[in-house]
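Priority: low. Protein: Heavy-metal-associated domain-containing protein. Input follows.
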Amino acid sequence: MEGAECENTVEGALTGVAGVESAAADRETGEVTVESDDDVEDQSLLDAITDAGYDLVDGDDSK
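Result:
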């Protein structure tokens, strides 16, 4: 994500997923925080981001 428009696009895509209460994207860290019902599938969130035209990056450096 490079700007506020990207943040808004990602947030909008995620809040469009049934059960998502809120989403906050941070372009500086490249991270997104999502608050949702327990029954929201991770894959639904991932699909929403990729459908919006963004690539996913595994930020887990412990692997």
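The longest strand covers residues 20-26. The chain has one domain: 4-51.
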